[in-house]
């Protein structure tokens, strides 16, 4: 598939992101998307063809492969990339809504349609929460499906129609495990960045609201004195 749409999406979101958000985009684009397209995809390219069991029983190999790989790791990684990037569309849509609203009213309604404040701030925070949630869900999914981020060299299968317990061999297990660890590490970094950005924005605008409230109180007390 073509990943151009995801690249364009990340490029569009980059204009409205904070400094931490731009680091997140860089990591997703360079260390996740490019690694997936350039290297990881080839590692799992023939995973079914290279999965071998020491039996010629028809159907046994397919059943065993489906049991140990209910979802292909590389397809799950692709789904994760798409899912964690999708919440950023909320920000793009909100900015487009602001721009369309200004055109419809034919006047300037915002200081900057891309400035993170008001409703756009809420949308941005929601997108961060969703991205963090999706990252955690996929990490748990990888852990449950692949036995704690492990890719064994040999697995034993005794499922029907296999005649008995047969040995099955996974191709390139070390290479696959390295990429799996890389995936987990980059997901962990992205979670830390999302939580940091969320905390930063909440703290920043809490201080801003507090300063504004204090300023109003001081102005009100001076007016009462006069």
Description:
The chain is elongated and about 85 Å long. The longest helix is centred in the C-terminal third of the chain and has 53 residues, at about 175-225. The protein is mainly alpha-helical and about 230 residues long. Helix 1 (about 5-15) crosses helix 5 (about 90-105), helix 2 packs antiparallel against helix 4 (about 75-85) and helix 6 runs antiparallel to helix 7 (about 175-225). Helix content is about 70%, strand content about 5%. It contains 7 helices and 3 strands; from the N terminus they run H-H-E-H-H-H-H-E-E-H. The protein has a 3-stranded antiparallel sheet, covered by helices on one side. Strand 2 (about 155) and strand 3 form a beta hairpin. It has helices spanning about 5-15, 20-45, 60-70, 75-85, 90-105, 120-145, 175-225; strands at about 50-55, 155, 165-170. It has a single domain, classed as Gap junction channel protein cysteine-rich domain (de novo design (two linked rop proteins), Up-down Bundle). The protein starts with a helix and ends with a helix. Belongs to the connexin family. It is a multi-pass membrane protein. One of its GO terms (cellular component) is connexin complex. This is Gap junction protein. One of its GO terms (molecular function) is gap junction channel activity.
């Amino acid at each position: 598939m073509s990943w151009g749409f995801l690249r364009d999406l990340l490029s569009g979101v980059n204009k409205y992101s904070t400094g931490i958000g731009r680091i997140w985009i860089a990591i997703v684009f360079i260390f996740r998307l490019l690694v997936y397209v350039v290297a990881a995809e080839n590692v799992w390219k023939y995973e079914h063809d290279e999965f071998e069991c020491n039996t010629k029983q028809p159907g046994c190999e397919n059943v065993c492969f489906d049991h140990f790989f209910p979802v292909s790791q590389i397809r799950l990684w692709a789904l994760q990339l798409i899912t964690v990037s999708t919440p950023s569309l909320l920000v793009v849509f909100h900015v487009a809504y602001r721009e369309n609203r200004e055109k419809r009213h034919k006047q300037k309604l915002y200081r900057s349609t891309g400035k993170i404040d008001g409703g756009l701030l809420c949308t941005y925070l929601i997108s961060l929460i969703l991205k963090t949630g999706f990252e955690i869900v996929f990490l748990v999914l990888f852990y449950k499906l692949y036995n704690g981020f492990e890719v064994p060299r040999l697995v034993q299968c005794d499922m029907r129609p296999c005649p008995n317990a047969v040995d099955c061999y996974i191709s390139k297990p070390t290479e696959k495990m390295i990429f799996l660890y890389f995936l987990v590490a980059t997901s962990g970094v992205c979670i830390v960045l999302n939580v940091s950005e969320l905390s930063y924005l909440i703290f920043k605008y809490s201080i801003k609201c507090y300063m504004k409230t204090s300023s109003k109180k001081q102005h009100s007390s001076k007016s009462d004195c006069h």
